[in-house]
Amino acid sequence: MNKKNLFYILISMIFCLLVIRFINIRVVNHDYYLTLYSKTTQKVISNFTAPRGRILDTNGNVIVDNKKVPIIIYRKIDNISKEEEIDLAYKLTRVLNLTKEAEEDLLKEFYLLTNDTNYLLTEQEIKDLEYRKISNEEIKKIKLERIKDEINNYSLEDRIAINTYYLLNKGYYYDTKILLDNASNDLCALIMEEDIKGVSCSYKYERVNNYNTLNQIIGQTAMIQYEDKDYYLSRGYNIDEIVGISGLELYYEELLHGTPAKYIVKEDNSIKLLEEEKQGQDLILNIDINIQLRLDEILKENIEKTKNYKYTNYYKGSYAIISNPNTGGILAISGFQRLKDNNNIIYKDVTRDIITSSFTVGSVIKGASHTVGYLNNAIEIGKKINDSCVKLYNVPEKCSYKKLGYIDDITALKTSSNYYQFITAIKTTGNTYKRNMQLEVSIDDFNRYRDVFKHFGLGSSTYIDYPGEVTGITGDKISPDLLLNFAIGQYDTYTPIQLLSYINTISNKGIRYNLSFKKDNTKEVDNINLDQTYLERIQEGFYQVVNYGTARGYISYDNNGVGKTGTAQNYYDGKIATINQTFAGYFPRENPQYSLVVVSPNISYETDNNSDYYNPTTRNISRAITNYLATLSQHQLAD
After folding, report:
1. CATH 3.90.950.20 fits 312-638, yes or no
2. Which positions ≥6 away from 360 have C-beta within 8 Å?
3. How confident is the model at residue 256 (pLDDT cuts 50, 70, 90)?
4. How many C-beta atoms surround the C-beta of residue 338 within 10 A?
5. Does 601 sit behind a cis peptide bond, omega within 30 degrees of 0 on the bond before it?
6. How confident is the model at residue 7 (pLDDT cuts 50, 70, 90)?
7. pLDDT value for 223
8. Among 555, 570, 563, CA closest to 603
9. Hey, how many other C-beta atoms are within 10 angstroms of the C-beta on 29?
C-alpha cells in the first residue's frame, strides 16, 4: 500500500471517530454532557427531590403519596477558608445536636488535611517526590496507611465535627449538601435565628404508604446507589436525587421520577430560579385496595388458625394472588410468614417471594401434563383405563393416592390420578407400559414436557412488570422415575405467579396474556394452539375437581368454580420431609371474572402416623377469598 492511500485511510478513520464521538455527545449521552457542561460553565443547583408520581389503585385510591420533609442544607460560601469551615462544622455539630461520628478513613483524611505529616515519610520517599519519581496521590496513600495512633486523640465532639466537615464538602463545590433529615420546625426556626451563613432550611419529598400494604411490591426509594451513578448521570439525574431501588418504584422509575427545580447561582452566591420542579406521572395499578386489604386479613387469620393444627411445626405462612383472568391484571397479591419476636407474634411481609421464589407444586399442573398427552397422541378422548400402579425396572412401585377405578381423561383430572399421568408420560416416549419394563429416556423426553409447560408460563417468564422475576429450578438429572415425577409436578419447581399465568391460560382456552400490576398493560404473549375440544375437556375436568373431586369446597358450589389442587413432597432445610399444598382456580366457569392461586409451603410434615392427614388451610383461604369476591360481584351488579 502506498503512502498516499494510507494517508486517506487514516484521515477516514479519524473522521469516523469524530462522527461517532459527535453522535455520542449530541444524541446517546446528550443529557449527561449537557449537565456536565452546565456544571462547568455556570453554577446550576437543584432541589434534592421533586415529588414522584403517586401510585393509585384501579379505582383512584391513592396508595402511595409524597410527604414534604424539612431538611437542613448548606451552600458553600464564596472564599470561605478551610479553618473557617472547620469552625463552622463544630458550631453546626452543637446547634444541630448531631451525633454521627466520622469513620476511621475520614478521621485519617482529616488528620492529613490539618497536620504536617511529612514525618510519616522516609527521606528517600521525600526525595522521590521532589524529583517526581512518585506522585502526590501515591504519597497520600502511603501517609494514610501509616496514620495509626494519631486519630485516637480525637474526642467524641471532634469525631462528630469531622463527620460534619465532610458533609459540608461532599460533592461539587457549589452543590447543595444535606446536613440533617427530618428537621423539626423548632430547629428550622433556630437556624434562622442563628443566621449561620450558607446554612438554611429546605425540604425534600419522602414516600408514604397510606394503607401499609403491598410494601414489598411497591418497593423502596433511596439516593442513587454508587454502582448505578453512571447510569443515572447519563440520563440527566443529579447525583443526590431519590430514585426507585426495588419493586414497582424501580421498574417504573422513568414514569414516576419527578424533575427537581433548578437554580442558577449568581456571582454574589444568591440564586435565581431556572426551571420549576415537575411532579412525576402517576402510576395506576390493577390492584383493588379493598380486595387487597381483605386478602391480607384472610391470610393472617388462616395462618394463625393453622398453628392450632397438627404437624405444622415447619409451616410459616402462605401466599395468595387474585387476578382478572381476561387481562392478566393483578387485583391483589399477598404473602405472610408468622414469626415470633421476643414472644410477640409478628407477620412478616414476604409477598415478593410470589415472584422471586419457586416451589414444588404437585398435581396442580396436571392440566399442562394433559396438554402434552393430547399434543403427542398419548391420550385418547373418553377412553377408560383402570387406575393402578406403575412398576419400572429398578424403581419402586408408583401409584395414585388410592385406587380410583376406571377413569378417562376427564375423571383422571377430577380424581387427580397419578397413574394416568405415568401411563401418558410413558406413551410420549414412544413406548407402551409393561410391568417391570426398562424404560429409556433422554433430555428430549423432558423437553417435550417443558416446551409445552412454557406455553402456560410454567418454567418461563410471565412478563410481569416487576424486577427480579425467577423462572423456577429446572432439574438437571435424567431418569425414567424423574420423568414420571415431572408429569405430576414433583420435579421442576415453579413460582406462585407462574401458576397464575397457567390457570389464566386455561381460562382463556390456550391464549396467554402477560401478568401486570399496571393498568391497561395487557398483551397476548403466547397461544398453545391446542384443539379447543381438548382445552374444553381440561376445563371440564377442572370443573369436576372443584365441584365433585379433590378440590371440593375450595370454591363454593354456587360460584361455579374451576380449578385444581396440588400436594407435593418437599424437604425443609433439605432434611425434613414436608408437604406443600397448592390450589389454582377461577370462577365463574362461563365468563370468568376472577382467578386465584394459593400456595402453602411446608403445611405439614410426614410421620408414620399422618399419611392420611389433611390440613384444610389452603382450602379455607381459597374459600374465604372466593366467597368475598362473589359477594363483591353481587354488590357491583346491584349497583
Report:
1. no
2. 489, 490, 491, 493, 568, 569, 570, 580
3. very high
4. 18
5. no
6. low
7. 83
8. 570
9. 17
